[in-house]
Amino acid sequence: MMNQVAGMVNWGIIGCGDVCEVKSGPAFNKIPHSKLVAVMRRDAEKVKDFATRHQVSKYYTDANELILDRDVNAIYIATPPSFHELYTEQALAQGKPVYVEKPVTIHSESLIRMIEAEKKYNGKVSVAHYRRALPLFIKIKELLHSGVLGKIRLVLLNTLQPPVSKIVAQTGGNWRINPALSGGGLFHDLSPHQLDILYWLFGAPLATDVQVVNQGKLYDAPDLTMLRLQFANDIYFNGTWSFNVAEQAATDTCEIIGDRGNLRFSFFRVSTIELNNEDGKQFIEASYPENIQLPHIRNVVQYFRGEGPNPCSLEEALVTMQIMDQAKL
Q1: What pLDDT digit, counting tens, does each position of 48-76 carry?
Q2: Beta carbons of 286 and 140 less than 8 angstroms apart
Q3: In 3D, which of 8, 101, 104 has the Cα closest to residue 293?
Q4: In this structure, are residues 10 and 73 in contact, taking their beta carbons and an 8 Å threshold?
Q5: Which residues pair with 263 in a beta bridge?
Q6: The dihedral of CA 69, 72, 76, 78: what is its sign?
Q7: How far apart are alpha carbons 38 and 203 in whole angstroms?
Q8: Which candidate, 32, 22, 65, 50, places its Cα nearest to that of 301?
Q9: What would the DSSP string read from start to end of 185-242?
Q10: How many angstroms separate the CA atoms of 129 and 205, rounded?
Q11: N or C of the chain: less Cβ packing under 10 Å?
Q12: pLDDT digits over 98-144, tens only?
């Protein structure tokens, strides 16, 4: 039987940067049986500031000290991806379950080692593919299963952004475009959300074709990725990610097309579902929590306490990572 947390899940965050300010950090104190008790960041002034503003009692500049803290019994890893494997194994070795940000790591070989460590230490690891728990995507899955689109034929996705994008977090040093830290470029930062939802809706792809190029030459990673996937039941996907277009051309759209209708939505902006079929066109609203990861973290807490399934396993994340591995120069 895997290790699980008895009683309160007392969280420690490794890497309390921008993602933790609103998206995830405050959620840990809003969920039953969950409390944020410690945070870590290498910058002493910034970690103290975060702890003070979020009323966290302990803060560290050394990840190992946080992992060894006896008051911490679960670890959230929100560092750049190149550090995820190391901290995951260290936490598992101390018998502490891990909630790890996406991208899970920098490539599939690293992820496979993380899976092996999870088994070695009989631990629990859950991945921050939090869109699975958002009302928008739950409703989309419900609509697809209801048959309102008929047989699904095609999925079209366009994520087109200027070099400085409003949907990409801007951080000092911009590690997201450094392949050594992120595994790739901005495709590696954004596409895991989208590819995971495709897997969640349609299963693992049967075939993959990827083309990448660095058009802008602004950094050492692709800024254009074109991806084609074949899923079971004769479903095909065509996606384009470009981070080198004019501001006026920016778009974030996904369309799912069936033989009875289609629906459209956005991944990274507050979105409605535009449904168009033989019954006419309708717009379906979806709510968004203030802390976007809260519904998913609630499921993670239940999993760590032995009260529910893993909301996203490392094995599931490997499907996405294997696609991303092909999108490198």
Answers
A1: 999 999 999 999 999 999 999 999 999 99
A2: no
A3: 101
A4: yes
A5: 256, 275
A6: negative
A7: 37
A8: 32
A9: SHHHHHHHHHHHHHHHHH-S-SEEEEEEE-SS-SSSS-SEEEEEEEEGGGEEEEEEEE
A10: 18
A11: N
A12: 999 999 999 999 999 999 999 999 999 999 999 999 999 999 999 99
**C-alpha triplet 131, 33, 105: angle, nearest 5°:** 40
Please report how the helices 108-120 and 314-325 are oriented relative to each other, as an axis angle in degrees rounded to 10.
Answer: 160
Cβ neighbours of 253 (radius 10 Å): 16
Q: Is 55 helix (H, G, I), strand (E, B) or coil?
A: coil
pLDDT of residue 297: 98
Q: In terms of DSSP bridges, do strands 9-14 and 34-40 run parallel, antiparallel, or are they unpaired?
A: parallel
Q: Which of 115, 81, 317, 313 is nearest to 184 (CA)?
A: 81
3-state secondary structure of 164: coil
Read off the pTM.
Answer: 0.95
How many C-beta atoms lie closer than 10 Å to residue 218's C-beta?
A: 13
Contact between residue 34 and residue 28 where contact means Cβ atoms under 8 Å apart: yes
pLDDT at 173: 57
What is the total residue count of the chain? 329
pLDDT in tens, 229-268: 999 999 999 999 999 999 999 999 999 999 999 999 999 9
Calculate the alpha carbon distances from 302 to 13, 85, 126, 217, 243 in Å. 18, 23, 11, 45, 38
Amino acid 219 reads Y
